[in-house]
Design a protein that fits this description.
Layout: H1 2-18, H2 21-27, H3 47-57, H4 62-75, H5 84-93, H6 99-106, E1 114-115, E2 118-126, E3 131-137, E4 143-148, H7 157-171
């Protein structure tokens, strides 16, 4: 294992010293979307379709969106781009949307961004019992992690009780190295 690690480190050093294409590519910023020419069957979403989904998602207030679109149009000879991708990328750069939100919108989805009083920002991971999302409280602008149970398991009362027991136990802990639990709640059938 040590020899393999040393060989990889030597290869990285040689690549950096030689200025190889690999090291140059690593220095470039990652694109949000793959190049469109790679997928000839891909039907590009128009800017209007994207903006319709964005409005229906309620991720952005209308006055904020209007101001943003005015600024984008001003940079583009007073016209909006024809396709959705440049608008989505500009919204990410401006901090209006996250990459995760943008990817979902570009995939045609406009639901699932809100959970009660929280706006979901991105998917953090999946555990044995749930999905975990980074979210922001819409009024307080405080970021939190939200654990969401799978909808097909909520009907199982023992599963739901085990989740509540875990949350109550974690809420009793007060240590800087342990994530604090502040609340247990549900939004309809979403727990």
């Amino acid at each position: 294992i040590e020899a393999a690690s040393r060989a990889r480190a030597d290869e990285r050093s040689r690549s950096a010293a030689n200025g190889s294409a690999r090291s140059v590519q690593a220095a470039r910023p990652a694109r949000l979307l793959p190049p469109l020419e790679l997928s000839p069957l891909f039907d590009r979403m128009t800017a209007n379709e994207f903006l319709d989904l964005l409005r229906r998602s309620q991720l952005v207030e209308e006055d904020q969106l209007t101001k943003f679109l005015g600024a984008v149009a001003a940079k583009n000879k007073h016209r909006l781009p024809e396709h959705a991708e440049p608008i989505a990328e500009a919204m990410i750069e401006a901090g209006i949307l996250t990459e995760w939100q943008s990817e979902k919108l570009l995939a045609g989805k406009h639901k699932g961004f809100m959970l009660g009083k929280y706006k979901l920002l991105r998917h953090l991971g999946k555990g044995g019992m749930s999905q975990v999302y980074l979210a922001e409280h819409m009024l307080m602008k405080r970021k939190v992690a939200i654990k969401v149970l799978p909808s097909n398991r909520v009907e199982d009362s023992t599963y739901l009780e085990r989740f509540r027991t875990e949350a109550r136990a974690a809420a009793k802990l007060d240590d800087p190295n342990i994530v604090r639990v502040y609340d247990i709640d549900n939004d309809g059938k979403t727990h």
